[in-house]
Design a protein that fits this description.
Elements: E1 2-4, H1 49-52, E2 59-61, E3 67-72, E4 81-86, E5 91-95, E6 114-119, E7 126-130, E8 133-136, E9 141-147, E10 157-164, E11 170-176, E12 188-193, E13 196-202, E14 219-224, E15 233-238, E16 241-246, E17 251-255, E18 269-274, E19 280-286, E20 289-294, E21 297-302, E22 310-311, E23 314-315, E24 328-330, E25 336-341, E26 348-353, E27 358-362, E28 377-382, E29 390-395, E30 399-404, E31 409-413, E32 428-433
Parallel strand pairs: 1-2
Antiparallel strand pairs: 3-4, 4-5, 5-6, 7-8, 8-9, 9-10, 11-12, 12-13, 13-14, 15-16, 16-17, 17-18, 19-20, 20-21, 21-24, 22-23, 25-26, 26-27, 27-28, 29-30, 30-31, 31-32
């Protein structure tokens, strides 16, 4: 809601004061996961309902250059970029542009990268945005960059400007395209339409159809996904597993197991079923890692990789395949309203508190945690230097950005591709304003 009024490229001398980590001694311990049953230990007492049920703060535009929502483009450390939905219904993007994900009619590694946020060509009256796909006020879905954009029956395409997808009018859209070796053919897209949920792309993890139907490596056309009856779809989130959040706070998942965040004997599991969380208000997934906010509490889970989570303040050692397959509580200093994760191999997350403060945890390469240091943080630390409360935070492997209630966007971390949007490539340990059009 709005109203108008190098992989480690942080260098000595980059912006950022000396800043100590937030004292984590008062933070509650991470809930331990019970074996076998998928039961989540609630840990210390839950946040007060009056605060945990609060949603993100609204954007009230402080100037003509005003964003109302913020997303990432592809989410890879070598293809980092961001897009913002502006208050006038246009979309501006900045950062890496190898696959045309900036939507400017040009592409190429290192050639068309941009540290300047510029409007995507041909888009107007946009009301919803996910990565490089947008929905306009008529329900038309437009996509750009690389993905299953229905321009070919056999492969993904690179679109340097937005193309209109041949699907019915939609209210929500989500897209995922994994370029990681073995998982090359796992790209999928979904849209919420009047008749339910449509999905298309590769079916490598059963995110479009059970495996007794078309083969997993075929590029499938849009088709209905059988989801249990329930409340209206609030949002869709795609990685190696698919997540559907309903207006009543229930969360469904299907696809790669682990990543689906629930107990299942199927690998992968192509059948949408409920995750054992209630009152879910925010979800994020990137590749095999996922996080959610439920009743003001942050939870994360993932497929096996390098340590992302913590038990009693210590990094988790090398784990079994399913050790972090179910939601684990992240001990944030206050109830949170929104959450963001990186890939399971980069081990990091961020969340927005009810106060508008932003907290991050995990690996701190490039100063991506925003606390003014490059020291890893096993417990959430507060981002320092934001000039006002945040609405949401988005995090990638080497950079982080936050949308403030003023409609301004501030970013910090590495800036190899101009993904901090400051008009020049200059890393920073503390938030710096993006120059929006």
């Amino acid at each position: 809601m709005a109203s108008c009024s190098s992989d480690s490229d942080v260098i000595a001398g980059a912006d950022g004061p000396d800043a100590a980590h937030t004292d984590a001694s008062a933070a509650p311990d991470v809930a331990e996961l019970h074996d076998g049953g998928g039961v989540i230990d609630a840990g210390p007492s839950r946040p007060d309902a009056a605060t945990s049920d609060a949603g993100p703060r609204p954007v009230v535009c402080a100037s003509a250059s005003c964003a109302t929502s913020l997303v990432t483009t592809l989410g890879l450390h070598d293809r980092e970029g961001y897009c913002a939905l502006l208050h006038d219904g246009t979309v501006a993007c900045w950062g890496q542009n190898q696959d045309g994900q900036l939507g400017r009619g040009e592409a190429g590694y290192g050639v068309a990268n941009s540290a300047i946020a510029t409007r995507v060509e041909g888009l107007s009256n946009v009301v919803a945005l996910d990565h490089t796909c947008a929905i306009d006020e008529d329900g038309a879905t437009w996509c750009w960059g690389k993905g299953p954009f229905l321009r070919s029956t056999s492969s993904f395409t690179n679109e340097h400007t937005p193309v209109k997808l041949p699907i019915p009018p939609a209210t929500r859209v989500a897209v995922h395209n994994s370029p990681l070796g073995f998982f090359l053919d796992t790209g999928v897209a979904c849209a919420a339409v009047d008749d339910g949920l449509l999905c298309w792309g590769r079916n490598g993890f059963g995110q479009i159809a059970p495996f007794d139907r078309p083969p997993g490596n075929e590029l499938l056309a849009p088709q209905p996904v059988a989801i249990p009856q329930g409340a209206k779809i609030r949002s869709i989130h795609l990685g190696m597993a698919s997540f559907l959040l309903r207006e009543d706070g229930t969360l469904l998942s299907w696809g790669m197991n682990p990543t689906i965040g629930r107990v299942s004997s199927l690998f992968p599991d192509p059948y949408p079923r409920a995750v054992a969380l209630t009152g879910v208000s925010s979800v994020d997934v990137l590749e095999g890692a996922a996080c959610a906010v439920a009743e003001g509490i942050a939870y994360c889970w993932r497929a096996p990789a390098e340590p992302m989570f913590i038990i009693d303040g210590d990094p988790v050692p090398e784990e079994s395949f399913i050790e972090h397959a179910l939601p684990e509580r992240i001990p944030t200093p206050e109830p949170v309203v929104q959450i963001s994760t990186t890939s399971r191999t980069n081990a990091r997350g961020c969340a927005t508190g009810v106060s508008g403060d932003v907290y991050c945890w995990g690996k701190n390469t490039n100063g991506v945690l925003g606390d003014g240091t490059t020291k890893d943080a096993p417990l959430p630390v507060k981002v320092v230097g934001l000039p006002g409360p945040a609405v949401e935070v988005r995090t990638l492997d080497t950079s982080t950005c936050a949308l403030l209630t003023t409609g301004k966007v501030h970013c910090w971390g590495g800036d190899r591709f101009g993904q901090l949007g400051g008009g020049h490539k200059n890393p920073t340990l503390v938030p710096r304003e993006v120059v929006l059009p």
